[in-house]
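Appendix B, Record 12. Input sequence as logged:
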Amino acid sequence: MTAQLKNRPKVGILLVTNGKNGDYVAHLQMRGVHDYRKDCPQTWPGTYQVTVEGKKHQGESNLEALRRELREELQQSAGEFVLKMLVGDGLKNDSILLHEEDIIIYQLLVPSDLFKNYGIYLENITGGLRPITREDVIGIRLVRPEWRTIIHPYSQNTIIVKPHVKKALEILFKRYPKPGKKKK
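Logged structural output:
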């Protein structure tokens, strides 16, 4: 892989729903073992990324890249619904959760029944969705370089992410305090 392809900026979106106790729940996507679109092994199998995440193609705007990634990773109708909710009159700065040199992650609060209504179940996307609560963030482990091409043996019971994903979750749960607590 050339450095030019490897270092392309990424865009992502973290879908958030209201949990049963009124607190927020973020939804991470587990990376599968095989990339069926490219017909090759997936990198970082068994680790989690934000709900939808991918590298921008040359010349793509953030919006164009998000649209493409939403269509690729969610069913088209769900992807279009999410995009309409996120964009409205245009991408807004307040929807940015994390913006670093090589990645920008947007957040979006979606209806709790979005996944059920659009038939997005665990088997419909790469490796499945996992709901993450603020209590889960404490136990998250960061990936290690040697896990790039192998499934980590603890990936079934442990949430393993890249640093930008953990940072985005920490920002999200800090931005939105637990119900009944006042924002500092």
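The mean pLDDT is 79.
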